């Protein structure tokens, strides 16, 4: 009798410890995407940081990764990136984070961001062109992420349309 009770308890325990899984189904073979945004990064986070947030509509998959590039006048630079300003050691840097619903780009300085000159604001805050590349979680190709063109080529997106994202309100 004790063996039956022990067996029954083990069976019930094994059933109750089963976990639920969520599977994502892809509608086509290549779910990589490229988005381009030209906007101001001017929402104050604190005295040193501005940001801008854009929505993914529809949301990307949980397993997807995101790469963000900034147009620096002659090429695309992978974020995070830091630039020196003047000779006093002042710096401005870009970084980002993302969820499956949005991507947020930050501009940080090592001094009060309001002290940027008008020219510096034009170069680093206003009218910034950003490209967001969605990389599928199951992508295993080798690529040089620093090189935007190599990344796009590895993902097979050379002829894909560049979509736009809407600013988060």
In N-to-C order, the SSE pattern is HEEEEEEEEHEHEE
Shape: globular
Question: What is the first-to-last residue Cα distance?
Answer: 65 Å
> How many helices?
3
Overall average residue pLDDT: 85
Fraction in helix: 10-25%
Strand content: 35-45%
Number of β-strand runs:
11
Radius of gyration: 23 Å
Structural class: alpha+beta
Largest sheet: 6 strands, antiparallel
Q: Unreliable runs, pLDDT <50, ≥5 residues?
A: 19-30
Written overview of the protein:
The chain is an alpha+beta fold and 169 residues long. It is 17% helix and 37% strand. Strands 2, 3, 6, 7, 8 and 11 form a six-stranded antiparallel β-sheet that branches. Strands 5-4-9-1-10 form a five-stranded mixed β-sheet, with no helix packed on it. The N and C termini lie far apart (65 Å).
Blueprint (SSEs and pairs):
Blueprint lengths: L1 H15 L16 E7 L3 E4 L2 E7 L9 E7 L4 E3 L2 E5 L4 E9 L3 E8 L8 H7 L3 E8 L12 H7 L8 E2 L1 E2 L2
Parallel strand pairs: 1-10
Antiparallel strand pairs: 1-9, 2-3, 3-8, 3-11, 4-5, 4-9, 6-7, 7-8
Would you summarize the structure shown here?
By secondary structure, the chain is an alpha+beta fold.
